[in-house]
Amino acid sequence: MSTDPSTSSAASAEEQSNKRKSKKPKYSRFTQQELPAWQPILTPRWVIAIFTLIAIIFIPVGLAAFSASQRVVEVEFEYDSTCIPDSYKDNATAYIKDDATNKTCTQKLSIKSKMQAPIFVYYQLDNFYQNHRRYVKSRSDEQLRTPDKENDVSSCSPEDYVIINNKSQPIVPCGLIAWSLFNDTYKIQNNDKDLVINKTNIAWASDRNTKFGSDVYPKNFQISGLIGGAKLDPNLPLSEQEDLIVWMRTAALPKFRKLYGRIETDLEADDEIVVLIENNYNTYEFGGKKSLVLSTATWIGGRNNFLGIAYVVIGSISLLLALGFLLLYLLKPRPLGDPSYLSWNKNPGGLR
Asked: For all residues of the chain together, what is the average pLDDT?
């Protein structure tokens, strides 16, 4: 019996067409999930060993971190209310806005424990929401990096342009973050000698080298009628204005510290230092607070008791669980995988 060649070729073409249209993946052990796999079985011995290992690691690390935190010497002085004259106690906002009044405030601080250099000088603000959505977005990263983008101020309103000779000129750096730059200043004396506050390398190197251009200079900054904070040196590129760089790294919480500088001289116990504060920054209008903080550092950084306590708590809980499972395993052992403990074997009548 002969076969029609035309029918055979049509069937072959249809088969090839079906192969082309098929979405079936090419067979492999990977796509079909047939590769060898290892699934750990958490036996009582493994569970006890894991919890014990966590305790052995976490408890010593936590104790070391807590001990390092306790060795940090810290002096904090809240001066927003102290540095207001008695005549302005009921109207601090009027005092801070009056350019004619003397804003210099002198205070004495006692050093209770020896502070070894470097001593970090911070300013601390409270009730200042740098994480507000509009505030965080009010900046132009392109403008900060390159001079060709000085007109890239679309996200900086209302601090985007200033009118000069009836012409709109871009503000560099633009935006509310730069406009509100902290402008209180500190001078510290010990035994009638000025302590040098080193303000170099206080910002992250990555920020200085990549986010702020070495050929971008301040332009038309803080010259409008409403002055927000500190002014910038128009002869210094933004990459060298580290106070601005530190301020532009916005804080996540309403209470935060930012590095002002470093003192490279030791302070002995019972020293009495004199702090001269230029109280310029307006926190009174929104109920904020300002503090000056002197702090040393250890391998863990500044004072942070929470980290050490958290490690110790987690390690202690793991140790208690390990001991509990160990006692249960010793007092009431049972064979691994015993089918008699299955619910339908313990109560066969319940399946009817």
From this structure: 89
